[in-house]
Write a structure and sequence with these properties.
about 140 residues; six-stranded mixed β-sheet
Length: about 140
């Protein structure tokens, strides 16, 4: 008989227990990466009271496939350089219509404007506290 207890425990251990980065510091690094590449309409959704999926969603859009890739790469580089953290999971970098960068407690959604309007993340989570992120340099 094999011992499955250890496997079952490790399977359900949240990766967030391994994260040492403060959430607000992570959010700042992510938004810096987005602002550097001129992301459009950056919104921070505080979903801590609404779901266990994450604490925050950051939603924005780009104007082209090239910009969407640049936004995702900029976020990954900024977080890695500033905090030493890698993205935990990512999806959509090849299609560049909806890129998801999952940092466990903060999930970044980078859309084309058309896909952002279609999927309506902000409408879906309309009970979340919403903060609009502006570039302070402009």
């Amino acid at each position: 008989m094999t011992n499955t207890t250890k496997t079952a425990e490790s399977q359900f251990t949240k990766p967030s227990s391994q994260k040492s980065v403060d959430t607000s510091t992570l959010i700042n690094a992510i938004t810096e990466g987005l602002l550097e590449k001129k992301a459009k309409d950056i919104v921070l959704l505080d979903v801590r009271e609404l779901t266990t999926l994450a604490d925050y969603f950051i939603v924005c859009h780009g104007t082209s496939d090239t910009q969407i890739r640049a936004l995702a790469n900029s976020v990954e580089k900024q977080v890695k350089d500033e905090l030493g953290e890698n993205v935990w999971q990512q999806e959509g970098k090849d299609s560049r219509r909806w890129v998801i960068l999952d940092y466990v407690n903060v999930v970044v959604h980078i859309f084309t404007e058309e896909k952002r309007n279609y999927y309506g993340i902000e409408r879906m989570w309309n009970d979340a506290k919403i903060t609009h992120i502006e570039d302070e340099a402009t």
